[in-house]
Amino acid sequence: MPGRWSATEFEESMTRIAFFGLGAMGAPMASHLAASGLDVTGVDVDPDARSRFSGAVSPAEAELGAADLFITMLPEGENVRDAYERWILGAAHAGAVLIDCSTIDVETARSLNAAASKRGLNQVDAPVSGGPEAAGSGGLSLMVGGRDADVALARPVLVALGAKITHFGAPGSGQAAKACHNMICGITAMAVLEGFALAEALGLDLAQFYQLCAGAAAQSWTLENRCPIPGVVPEAPASKGYAPGFAARLMAKDLRLAQAASEAARQPAPFGAEAARAFSAFAEATGGNLDFSSYYTRLRVQPDDTGNDRQ
Ligand code: NAD
């Protein structure tokens, strides 16, 4: 990745990366690092996911002892714990760097950091904001938690992955920031989807309504990147059959993580709770594999068979 950071700094200490999780985000992130000239081995339990990254292997096939740096980009805390406990902690050589970019709960992040530190490994949590597009171009925002020395070791790769790196503090603080950030995104998503459902029900031209919002106070990342109306934003998931993007099941998971954090901190977040309930019910009913903006299709009241426009 020309221009952003010096590969020399990285090559002096570590060159071989094992990248766990080649899903919607992991595959473009791993490809971006490989295109930047780094030696990346893709690792995934799913053969379909392995087909997204040249030379990818299963965890059992990977030569993990040869890796200097491990990146995990997995769905949930239990997946990261599984990858760490079954494969990574036992195989990594002393001094290796572990970066967890998955979005997981703060407690799991802290306990995995403690387990890694006990083995002489340098571990940071670095969940990301930005979709697959940003993942493939090094344009993510990373929220980082970890000891200063560990973050310094991870920094060259963090900078390769992201346009904006914010180190919040101790291990787990990246996940804390991510929970709050995604709660804002989830509530905003509900607002955008409801706003368009009402605009459609009121007979507005939705392309015109989109242009109005994009240039007015209702503007947001969700509006511009996840507009739920097919054809209005050509690159948005809605224009591609709601292919993710950010799967509804992951949005539901992130909102539940924010609720867990809200309960632990005894700071109520009622709008976040409602968004968590709505996306969780939708993901449970549909499998939640389409982009979260597909919730629009459930939200929008369809004309009934009497010919009335509203139910
Ligand atoms: P995904 O479900 O598309 O991909 C996850 C991959 O991990 C799958 O290919 C799965 O087979 C693999 N996997 C699961 N357990 C594994 C294990 N033990 N070892 C190796 N591979 C394993 O998920 P995604 O959309 O890429 O998201 C990954 C993480 O990033 C999630 O925590 C998500 O919340 C977060 N995130 C996603 C987005 C987005 O837009 N998709 C944006 C920001 C953050």
Features of this protein?
13 helices; N-(1-d-carboxylethyl)-l-norvaline Dehydrogenase, domain 2; 311 residues; alpha/beta; 3-stranded mixed β-sheet; 8 strands; Rossmann fold
Can you describe what's shown?
With 311 residues, the chain is α/β, with parallel strands linked by helices. The chain folds into two domains: 164 residues, NAD(P)-binding Rossmann-like Domain (Rossmann fold); 134 residues, N-(1-d-carboxylethyl)-l-norvaline Dehydrogenase, domain 2 (Orthogonal Bundle), CATH 1.10.1040. The protein is 49% helix and 12% strand. The chain is built from 13 helices and eight strands. The strands form two sheets. Strands 2-1-3-4-5 form a five-stranded parallel β-sheet, sandwiched between helices. Strands 6-7-8 form a three-stranded mixed β-sheet. Helix 8 packs across helix 11 and helix 11 runs antiparallel to helix 12. The longest helix has 29 residues. It is globular and about 65 Å long. It starts with 6 loop residues before the first helix and ends in a 12-residue tail after the last helix. The N terminus is likely disordered. The site of nicotinamide-adenine-dinucleotide has 29 residues, from helix 4 and helix 11.
